[in-house]
Amino acid sequence: MISILCPCYNEEEVLPSFFERVISVMEEISEPFEILCVNDGSKDNTLQVLKAKADEDKRIKVIDLSRNFGKEAALTAALDYSSGDAVIPIDADLQDPPELIATMIQKWHEGYEVVLAHRTDRSSDSWLKRTTAKMFYRVHNFISTPRIPENVGDFRLMDRCVVDALGHLRETNRFMKGLFAWAGFRTCLIDYRREPRVSGTTKFSGWRLWKLAVEGITSFSTTPLTLWFYVGGVISSCAFLYGLYIFIRTLIQGVDVPGYASLVCLILFFGGLELLGIGILGEYVGRTYTESKRRPVYIVRDVYPE
Predict the structure, then answer these.
(1) What CA–CA distance (Å, rounded) separates 62 from 11?
(2) Residues 162 and 89 sit within 8 Å (Cβ to Cβ)
(3) Which residues pair with 37 in a beta bridge?
(4) Which pLDDT tens digit goes with each residue over 216-230?
(5) Are residues 161 and 113 in contact, defined by beta-carbon separation less than 8 angstroms?
(6) Beta carbons of 107 and 39 less than 8 angstroms apart
(7) Cis amide linkage into residue 196, ω under 30° from 0
């Protein structure tokens, strides 16, 4: 059994094309399969389209969440409700070609427990998105453990043993790419070219991508906290040495009248550094506070069919 997992948020335009291509590919592979779609609080007719498709094809199951919890939570729900021996998360926009699933399954039969789809060509994405993604991977992999493969999204195949291992990781603040990498297991990569969206627009704004990047770094690295310790140490040392210099110069040359502009600049500079340090600390404290409440990652309103 192969479980195809698809988080959906306002995807009514693309769903007919999605089901047509995925079902066609899976029927050619001749492996038993299910398509598990998670409606993540969509505001359009996504749920109605999913329910109608589930009524006409019993291989389709729909998980309806009580509100929009975000893609990471929706993907977690799909993993929790999947029953396949292998699972394959895929987006409904068809930028990740379903035709690659056959190669993934072949690699799985060869003994790999994780098969990653590696994007060799992201020309369908904007220049800004490609550039910021490249910067994020470099920063994350420099300061975080484990490293996450560059240009690899959620589109991958995972054996049931991997899914079971991920089921034990229940933190509220979730960065799924990091959790996938943390779990480990025997892994291989296959290359592909990312396609343009079939229809509709991306649901990830620049602000949501920034929040996801911060989530990824703070979830798997304490380097920002450690780095700020050293920044504070260097600045304190410089301030001490400068104070010592002023003291000695005053003894030799007499009292010096400081300039108003330089004093204001120093106050603003060090005040900004303090606020930045407090902000970094606040990110970690906020995540600790959220985790301490132990709220569920998501809430399911209903499952179709029952």
Answers:
(1) 14
(2) no
(3) 6, 62
(4) 666 666 667 667 667
(5) yes
(6) no
(7) no
